[in-house]
Amino acid sequence: MSETIARYYDETKNPDTLYLDGVPLRDLMSDEFDALPAWLQASVDACGFYRKTKPPSIQPTVKKGDAHASS
Question: Domain spans of the chain?
Answer without folding.
Answer: 5-51
